[in-house]
Structures are given as structure tokens and as C-alpha cells.
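Example for tutorial group B:
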């Protein structure tokens, strides 16, 4: 049994505390999830890749050492499918010591013009999916005294105009993880929240094609307007996993933003007025729909019979 997860303390070891452990990464088909899977494998972990995009999951797995990873297509918001997947992970490897709730999608645009089905799907994947993921694997983490990392965002700390679903969902996921921490700490289970700014992923690049989101990013002060390499962000997050950190910052300046959180809503409101007026004048206030192929897949498969069951797994 995988009892007693790594404790980082004392002298540094050449071997990662993740070596030989089983880790689960949701949203692992592309972007940040795929990069975290690579970082975990480099540290000697066995990684279960979970996501909705079969071909991309297979490609990510094929680029990693044989036997180090296995993949399953599953909708993280489907409780029954996630329970089945957790059993398959346990059977394939063993009880995971690490679970990373990374699955997330985004949509942008004025709330009044947003498609409510898309808006709800963002919340469903980002918040409900995070809770379902934790619920499915929590018995394993209790058994291994493991660690759950919830990937949140800078969007949880400050209200970003045109990103109502994303901000609400990332704030909700953050709050959920903080509550979960209080409930499982006495069992030796660690829970962390990861905060990050713009990472160079397909979802963010799709957002840059939107006039409104380009204007939003242009209005942000440096370094908040900067895009960071996904591999570098993933490396920082996995270091946080190694340390079982309660808060993980992909960029150190985000720590300061978190401390300034009480003052951000009125400041953002003040700074965004001119931008919003200009976008209205220019006709740039339109809803984007789901951003990127991953988001489009998550929205398209909602209720179509493809996601309620675990459809395939890598061989």
C-alpha cells in the first residue's frame, strides 16, 4: 500500500519525493495539463492522464516513456464516470498519492450577451468538475495521506471584465479547495491552490483572437499582461506538489496580487470603464463562445451521450 506520502524537509535529495508515486492529472490532453504530466514523469511518477480529447491524450502519452503513463477519456463533471475511472486508475497503477484538478475551460464576452449554456458549462467543468474529481479520488488520498492540487487562476483574485464565468468558476474552485483543506488536514492529506497568470496554451491563444480580450490584456499593467511559457508554469506547479504547498504561485508577483485582493474590485472597475466604453463604441463587445478546441469539445459533448461514460482508455 502507498502509505505515507512524501514530506519535504531537511536535506534535499537527488531523487524527487514523487518518484514511484502515482499521480492523476485532469485536463491532460493538451496545454498545462500535458506539461505537468511531463514534469511528473521526469520526476519518476506514474501518471494517469484524464481528459475528453482521445487523440490528444494518446499523443501526449505516446511522447512519454512506455509504462509511465496511461490515459482515460472522461468528463470530470460526470460523477459516475469519474468513480469508474478512479477504480481503473487504482487497478492499473495503485492508489494515487497526488491528484491535480487542472481541467478547465473558458469563454469570454459581456455577461448579457453570453450563451447561458456555455456560461454554465464553464462553471460545470471548472467548479463541479473539480469537486467531482476530488470526491472520486479522496478515498485514495486518505489511504496514501496524499496531496490534492486545485489549479485556480489570477482570475480568482481580481474581477476581470468580460470573463464572468471564468472568474466565478476559478473563485469557486479556490474556495472549494480551501474548505476541503480544513476537512482533511487532520487525516494527513494536503490540499493546495495554484495561482497563475496567462500561460501560453491553445486556450489563451484562442482568446487573443478576440478583440475584447486583446483589449483587456492590453489594459493590464506589466507583468500581468505578459504570457508565460506553459512548460515553465507547469514546472513551478509541480515543484509546489513536491513541497505539498498550501499556495502555489506560478509567478512570484501573483503572491502580491493575492495580498492586495481586498482593494482590487474597485480598482479594476475604475480602470476598466474607459476600455468598456471604447469597446462599445467600436462594436467589440461580443461573446466568444468556448475558447480553444478543448473548450469547444467540452461544450459540444455535454449531454450528447459521449461523456456520461468512460469511453476509452489507452492501451
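The residue assignment follows.
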Amino acid at each position: 500500500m502507498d502509505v505515507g506520502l512524501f514530506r519535504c524537509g531537511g536535506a534535499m535529495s537527488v531523487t524527487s519525493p514523487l518518484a514511484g508515486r502515482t499521480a492523476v492529472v485532469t485536463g491532460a490532453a493538451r496545454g498545462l495539463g500535458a506539461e505537468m504530466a511531463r514534469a511528473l514523469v521526469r520526476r519518476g511518477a506514474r501518471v494517469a492522464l484524464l481528459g475528453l480529447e482521445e487523440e490528444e491524450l494518446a499523443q501526449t502519452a505516446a511522447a512519454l516513456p512506455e509504462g509511465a503513463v496511461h490515459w482515460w477519456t472522461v468528463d470530470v463533471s460526470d460523477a459516475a464516470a469519474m468513480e469508474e475511472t478512479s477504480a481503473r486508475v487504482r487497478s492499473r497503477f495503485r492508489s494515487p498519492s497526488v491528484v491535480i484538478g487542472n481541467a478547465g475551460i473558458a469563454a469570454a464576452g459581456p455577461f448579457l450577451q453570453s450563451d447561458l449554456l456555455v456560461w454554465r458549462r464553464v462553471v460545470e467543468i471548472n467548479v463541479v468538475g473539480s469537486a467531482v474529481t476530488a470526491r472520486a479520488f479522496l478515498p485514495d488520498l486518505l489511504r496514501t495521506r496524499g496531496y490534492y492540487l486545485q489549479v485556480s487562476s489570477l482570475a480568482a483574485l481580481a474581477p476581470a471584465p468580460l470573463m464572468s464565468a471564468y472568474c466565478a468558476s476559478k473563485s469557486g474552485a479556490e474556495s472549494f479547495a480551501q474548505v476541503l483543506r480544513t476537512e482533511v488536514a487532520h487525516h494527513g492529506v494536503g490540499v493546495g491552490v495554484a495561482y497563475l497568470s496567462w500561460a501560453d496554451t491553445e486556450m489563451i491563444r484562442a482568446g487573443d483572437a478576440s478583440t475584447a480580450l486583446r483589449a483587456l490584456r492590453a489594459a493590464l499593467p506589466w507583468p500581468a499582461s505578459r504570457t508565460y511559457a506553459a512548460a515553465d508554469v507547469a514546472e513551478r506547479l509541480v515543484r509546489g506538489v513536491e513541497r505539498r504547498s498550501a499556495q502555489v504561485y506560478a509567478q512570484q508577483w501573483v503572491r502580491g496580487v493575492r495580498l492586495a485582493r481586498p482593494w482590487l474590485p474597485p480598482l479594476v472597475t475604475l480602470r476598466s470603464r474607459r476600455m468598456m466604453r471604447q469597446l462599445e463604441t467600436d462594436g467589440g463587445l461580443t461573446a466568444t463562445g468556448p475558447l480553444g478546441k478543448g473548450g469547444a469539445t467540452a461544450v459540444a459533448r455535454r449531454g450528447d451521450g459521449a461523456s456520461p461514460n468512460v469511453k476509452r482508455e489507452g492501451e
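Residues 116-144 form the longest helix (29 residues). Compare this with the pattern of hydrophobic and polar residues in the output above.
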